[in-house]
Amino acid sequence: MQKIDHGLIFSYTLEKYENYDQMKILKKRGREFMDNRGFWETEDAKATGAGLKEYDTIDCMMKIDSHMKKFDMVDTAFNKRILNSVGIIPLPPEHIFNRNELEDSKCDVENESPAITQLDYALEEGAGAVEGATTSSRSTSGDSGLVIQLENGELFSMSLYRQNDPSGNELTSKVSERKYEFDSKKTASYAVKKAAKLYGADLVGIAPFEERWLYNTEVYFPRDFYTGKPFFDLANPFRPVDLGFQPKSVIVLAYEMDYEAYKTQSSAIVAAATTMGYTSMVENSFRVGTFLRKLGYHAHHAGNDTGLSVPLAIQAGLGESSRMGLLITEEFGPRVRLAKVYTDLELEFDKPKSFGVKEFCQACKKCARVCPAGAISKVTKTTDEENKPCNSSNAIGVDKWYNDGVKCLHFWGENGMECAACIVACSYNKAVSKVEKQTKSSNVSG
């Protein structure tokens, strides 16, 4: 399999529409599909604008099996690779992850090329400084990563996704004894959204808490602060998820990944933009969680851990699911990272909405065509008989395209670099000016 050129080249050259008009025609086809299936006559939804459809719940928007089983975090492709590499859950010798490991993508300064420079990798390392210093995990439970064993035997996690602080510093983790009383759910939601956007979120939506979107179990993988070695006797790849309180609402937060940086796919510059998204996730959700605790409410902030982010984001009205499995937003397309904050504060929920993504994806298939790993489904409709789960990394029970995350991650290892070909190729990408972003940020209800 060939490596993608890491040159600073506009990566739509992988495959692009011949012109802008062609792209508009394809989007129009997606709209026509919606009209032809009785778009405006659906009783469980209402038109809220040109091409926009609003639903009461996610179940009104997409088919979800009422007997759907909760997903185990251990089955994500990243955790399969991690736990196999340290011998906690070994995979069969013939498994694709035993063919290679994700290569160290540090720059060889002496042999650098114009396409892979020390400048690019310095940008990536700077973007990851906060994540690296706090070992805030992208793949495992929020309190994984480096831990310090205290004199009382408790473990203090360096991760900013930790929910408590046994060191005695309770400035961020302690819930205020005095509870702030809002005059309405609407007022409370306004305040939360205003705070989240002040702290750096690009999009904010609120969903009802539903047990089905929590992970069934999560991967706890602590490492010794002084040696960096795993605590194998404490690691638990099947730890039950316990929030410590009964949530009522979930605040879903989205962060744009830089448009210009993503044009350089696949490169260290793309990795820097991705990492800035992850940094925003941990910093912003940590602040929102602290804000709620200081108001006297319980909060559990999370990145990729604790529960599934995409269905929560759909329920919170931030966008739609897509062929590639990522959330598509009206504002940024698929170039977003997601975090969430679970809380027992009762808030006003946003409604799921669609704007033709599923119908457009049925006609487009561009992400599947450009995927160098062949990991994205090419079947036309989610209801087609050929659309079947690829492996245990697929969560089952939701109407969606099934993609192969294991193949995708394996390609990252062969390529020596993360891949964003599907994101870059998506026609929903668009640049948003600073003025537009400031205008959107001032409108906390939208």
Please provide a written account of the structure:
The chain has 446 residues and is of the alpha+beta class. The protein has 14 helices and 12 strands. The strands form 4 sheets. It has a 4-stranded antiparallel sheet with strand order 5-9-11-10, sandwiched between helices.
The helix count comes to 14
> How many distinct beta strands?
12
Instruction: Tell me the number of structural domains.
Output: 1
Assign an overall shape: globular
Helix/strand-derived category reads: alpha+beta
Side-by-side strand order of the widest sheet: 5-9-11-10
Major sheet: size, sense and barrel closure?
A: 4 strands, antiparallel
Cα end-to-end separation:
44 Å
Order of helices and strands: HEEHHHHEEHEEEEEHHEHEEHHHHH
What fraction of residues sit in β-strands?
A: 5-15%
Outline the low-pLDDT stretches. 1-50
- What is the average per-residue confidence, as pLDDT, rounded to a whole number? 85
| CA radius of gyration | 22 Å
The percent range for helix content is: 25-40%
Descriptive terms for the model:
single chain, 446 residues, alpha+beta, 4-stranded antiparallel β-sheet, 3-stranded antiparallel β-sheet, 14 helices, 13% strand, globular, disordered N terminus
